[in-house]
Write a structure and sequence with these properties.
Low-confidence stretches: none
Shape: globular
Radius of gyration: 17 Å
Largest sheet: 8 strands, mixed
Mean pLDDT: 97
Structural class: alpha/beta
Number of domains: 1
CATH topology: Rossmann fold
CATH class: Alpha Beta
Number of helices: 12
Number of strands: 8
Strand order of the largest sheet: 1-2-4-3-5-6-7-8
Strand content: 15-25%
Length: 279
Amino acid sequence: MPKFSSDDVEIYYEVTGTGFPLVWSHEFGGSMESWQNQVRYFSRRYQVITYAARGWAPSDVPTEPGAYSQDIVVNDLYLLLKHLRIEQAHVGGLSMGGSAALNFGLTHPEMARSLIVASAGSGSDDRENFLAAGQKLTDRLLSEGMEVVGNEYAHGNTRVQLLRKDPQGFEEFLRLLLAHNNVSSALTYRGYVMARPTVYALEEKFRALQVPTLIMIGDEDEPCVDPAVFMKRTIPRSGLVVFPQSGHAINLEEPDLFNRSVMDFLTAVEAGRWAERPN
């Protein structure tokens, strides 16, 4: 079972295919398995790397609050590439993983050939309510467990689109979600999701970022819409793809459109045809 150590936390990863590296970081509600449609598609051309974030089995599941933060998660991704002796990769993620990919690009731009930032930025707007809801969610995870809270989470306003479009895919998503550890999920949400800077706080860093960036959102993923538009307006070499009648898990809801959009982006980047926005 391939793993590497990040400050004594063992992180599990998988490598599929050959070619230029393409790494995917999963979301809070998902897992490494969430990327199976992308692994099958992109491994025909790329060396595709997926991994289980700390707190998600088969990676280690620390129970100390200090083991979870955005900086720690970004460093896990950095150490993964170092472990694999990868000098540069296309780096992508969704939601929590999208924030990891984005902040990896801000921290290590020389290692990012491009960035794919999907469904990221929740919590940037209506901050007070977001933090209050997050506190309630994490309290309930610790007191009631994943079975009860996970079922409610999976049927939220930005998740029901997957159930509507792909009932079987939704059942797979729910099965994997309910297998998550409730303690590490709560600690991840508190230490990373709730504590990370809003996208608006990163404006100066965004304007200096020269890594080609693809921003992707579902048009019914309300917490991410305005942050995505803000990123598009402030990251010079960015583009925005909006998925119609789609919620948060766009890689699961619309895998064909997701994969084709990303492939078109990667092809443009590799051909030197991904433009910088005119001033």
